[in-house]
Amino acid sequence: MNLREGFIGAIGNTPLIRLARLSEETGCEILAKAEFLNPGGSVKDRAALGIIEDAERSGRLRPRGTVVEGTAGNTGIGLAHICAVRGYRCIIVIPDNQSPEKLELLRHLGAEVRAVPPKPYSDPHNYQKIAGRVAAELPGAIWANQFDNTANREIHYRTTGPEIWRDTEGRIDAFVCATGTGGTLAGVSRYLKEHNAAVRIVLADPMGSALYHWVLDGELLAEGSSITEGIGTSRVTANLQDTLIDSALRIDDQHCIDMVYRLLREEGLFVGSSSGINVSAAVRLAADLGPGHTVVTLLCDRGGLYARRLFNPNWLREKGLTPPV
Ligand code: PMP
């Protein structure tokens, strides 16, 4: 029998999908790891598992304890599933501008959802800071702290990186993805660079994020804004710290949306906005590298989480974007 042990055993080992049309167009192999096929529906199932298991091992999280997190949604969804399996209470602090589908799903999963107004990281009412305070005030609670808890990048170093290396048989020229906490990029890139220092690591950044300039000239500087969720940041998190990044690409919302629709119409893949940023960046990178290279990226979550936004032409128009025809 080839079994996986419960929800937790089903996390990881996601397929690496060859994107046929984009590969033909670029003359490169454009490969996308289908993280939306994790059992909670996103790449963040891995971080949620890494963080909870680390807290259990260290004794910080005890039976019937509480897990508190500030999250744009997907980490909360992963945590809520795992808390259900392991018998923990789950409290999620989320900015109230995130997609209604994510908030609804979190409630269905049994998490206690506290939706708060979005505030910059420097503000004491920022959702991450509120989560830290809620955990500190509640006996038996831990703060998952996905941004600065390096158990996040560790699990990508132990699982996502090795899976990419195994499935490409080491034939990979570049890895590109957007970052929220930085856990995925940091963990995957460390594993790949250890196995072949020549693998090019590229950060894909939405508008409104400060990392594009940080990678190119060392200065945290944000320009513009973006409708993407879960990616882009104003600071260098502990997870991102010390990551070897060779270059950065900036992708605007219209290119992101166009790619999300192309992925659905040409490849049959129904994914969210960070996947649009990632695949757009992979195609740009392939054009820079020239034919004959292998570029790997991630499909982070499903389009259904954003159905009323990304797949609603009126919403897109309100945001100044042109719905693809
Ligand atoms: N895509 C989506 C949809 C996400 O929710 C996140 C995490 N917030 C990311 C990408 C970025 O992953 P990481 O936190 O590992 O940088």
TrEMBL record:
Cofactor: pyridoxal 5'-phosphate
An annotated Gene Ontology molecular function: cysteine synthase activity
Catalysed reaction equations from the record: O-acetyl-L-serine + hydrogen sulfide = L-cysteine + acetate
Matches recorded under Pfam families: PALP
Enzyme class (EC, first level): transferase
Xref: NCBIfam families: PRK10717.1 (NF007989)
PANTHER family per UniProt: CYSTATHIONINE BETA-SYNTHASE
Protein name: cysteine synthase
Organism field: Pseudomonas benzenivorans
